Amino acid sequence: MPKALMLAFTSPASAEVEEEYNNWYSGKHLPDLTHVPGIISATRYKLDKTIEAMPGIGGDARQYMAMYEIEGNTQEDLAQFAKNLVEAINAGRVDISPTLDMVNISASFLLPITETMPAAKAV
To answer: Comparing C-alpha atoms, which of 8, 84, 72 is closest to residue 40?
Structure first.
């Protein structure tokens, strides 16, 4: 069964701090989070707003998304990871930069409900 995920949708606090925000997120925050117990991997993405996935369906308003693969696949596993994350932030092992827009941030946990399905071969 695939592992659980945490998705974090974020943006910089302003256009003026975007470079500093990206340097912090990719160079400090992401590596810090990989030390939190329960993290398997972390990847950042920039949302491409130039292409519609389907006509009339818009994307997320934020500019970036980070995907964290979490060890486990139950609510209890996610609760333990969330506890580990809060403890790491409170202890200063994971910092939050003022360049991060904290008003428009969102994070969601996802539990797998199917196995991973590989792409079908073209006929």
So the answer is: 72
Q: Does domain 4-49+61-110 have CATH number 1.10.10.10?
A: no
Return the bridge partners of 54, or none.
57
The domain limits of the chain are 4-49+61-110
Quickly list DSSP for 44-112: EEE---SS-SBTTB---SSSEEEEEEES-SSHHHHHHHHHHHHHHHHTTSS---TTB-SSS-EEEEE--
pLDDT tens digits for the chain (123 residues)? 789 999 999 999 999 999 999 999 999 999 999 999 999 999 999 998 887 788 887 777 889 999 999 998 899 999 999 999 999 999 999 999 999 999 999 999 999 999 999 999 877
* Cα angle, residue 111 at apex, residues 25 and 76 outer, rounded to 5°: 95
Closest CA to 4 of 107, 88, 90: 107
CA angle at residue 97 from 95 to 100, to 5 degrees?
125
Q: Which amino acid is at 122?
A: A
